[in-house]
Amino acid sequence: MSILIKNGTVINADGTQKADLLVEEEIISKIGESLDETAEKVIDASGKYIIPGGIDVHTHLDMPFGGTVSSDNFETGHIAAAFGGTTSHIDFIIQGKGQSLAEAIDIWHSKADGKACVDYGFHIAITDFTDSVMEELPTLVHTGISSIKLFMAYKNVLQVDDETLFRSLQIAGDNGLLTCVHAENGDAIDVLIKQMLADGKTDPIYHAKSRPHWAEAEATSRAIHLAAIADAPLFVVHLTCASALDQIKMARAKGLKAMAETCVQYLFTTEDDLDRPGFEGAKYVCSPPLRTKKDQEALWEGLINGDLASISTDHCTFNYEGQKELGRGDFSKIPNGLPGIEDRMMVMHHHGVGEGRFSLERWVEITSTNPAKTFGMYPRKGVIAEGSDADLVIWDPEKEHTISVETHHMNIDYNLYEGMEVKGVPEVVFSSGRIVIENGEFKGKVGAGNFIRREAILSVI
Ligand code: URP
Ligand code: ZN
Ligand code: ZN
Known about the structure:
The protein has helices at 76-83, 101-112, 131-136, 162-174, 186-198, 205-209, 213-230, 242-253, 265-268, 293-305, 344-354, 360-374, and strands at 2-12, 15-24, 27-32, 41-44, 49-52, 54-59, 64-65, 68-69, 86-94, 119-125, 147-151, 178-182, 234-236, 258-263, 310-312, 392-402, 421-431, 434-438, 441-442. The chain is an alpha/beta fold. The chain folds into 2 domains: 2-51 and 384-398 and 421-442, Urease, subunit C, domain 1, CATH 2.30.40; 53-374, TIM Barrel, CATH 3.20.20.140. Strands 1, 2, 3, 4, 5, 16, 17, 18 and 19 form a 9-stranded mixed β-sheet that branches. Strands 6-9-10-11-12-13-14-15 form an 8-stranded parallel β-sheet. Strands 7-8 form a two-stranded antiparallel ribbon. The protein is globular and about 70 Å long. Bound molecules: N-(aminocarbonyl)-beta-alanine and zinc ion (2 copies). Residues 58, 60, 238, 314, 316 line the site of one zinc ion (ZN).
């Protein structure tokens, strides 16, 4: 199918231009002023922005965790992503104990096969670092997966020790793989959790109290130094606080290969939300936990000045009813994770661009271009250029919307940003040349989304 998009304002990370776009099959075939090519469909984008589709590099769809399974799968999560202007994401495969990487990869492919509606890639979280896994790692990049994750927290479940982290960093660095870390000191946290429960401190707020920001700063610093010894690139996921950000700034100032993202929830919610009346605070339980207003300010500053490369969601949905409720009477049993894949682009546009914190170009950079560059997808994705995938959003900067569980498409019974009024919404969304959202409806095909084979990662941004 060919589609001509006329009169739009094309926003890329490196500049803005008025241009027409010709989309043929899956790619952007031509960009120029007043294109007069014939096409099967013509869309007038006067007064609208055209941006590269959002890329969310941190999601957990259909993930077994905390005695349950995250409620958005590759169909519901993808439809929600599309409604929000996100056309690609990278999900975390979790290697089960005793599993080879190949087995874990097969399981995650079968979760997505036949369900995917937009394009998706995988990271793999290594939880059982056996000799055979060590042998498999160098070949990972040939499967189209070029990043791994190590958990420094969730003791006795997902946590790895420093030796494992260090060996993984060495092998990853030598083989074009980027190592991501969940940076919290799981041992100290485990002690605090046990002490709090023994003292009868069982409410959701103690989830945050048992995971102090120093535990994150310490693990961030440790990961940075281990990566420096291994001479390997490092990406700290879901960074939440000023003290951890200081470690990233220090590392980057010294020329170390360290990068970090934050997630939308850390900019808009705080530890106080875990102290809401009744058991409501459970809706805000994620790890690392929500922090303070001061931390929010530091994170905004990091996004503005480039210390933080990108903004993702850590989309990991658990319904309040029946899932978050598993932790009544014991905060450590509340499944960790929050929703956001549908909201990210709108919330960051409204509060980032609309409130004058950063430019349209920087918004595109942190939500799409840098994620693509960091994780081996650029320039196929993350940019509007001839030859790139036609992952596009026609964005209406004037249209207003109130975010709510009543209207969202995520498979979860609450919305973290309930009642937030935003100006600027996706109007038409293309995934690899196919229209997936138009006139407020899902127009895509379930099963049509493709696995993104990512390139080796040889440099840091
Ligand atoms: O609370 C969170 N973040 N849940 C998902 C798993 C993880 O640590 O990323
Ligand atoms: Zn994590
Ligand atoms: Zn996560």
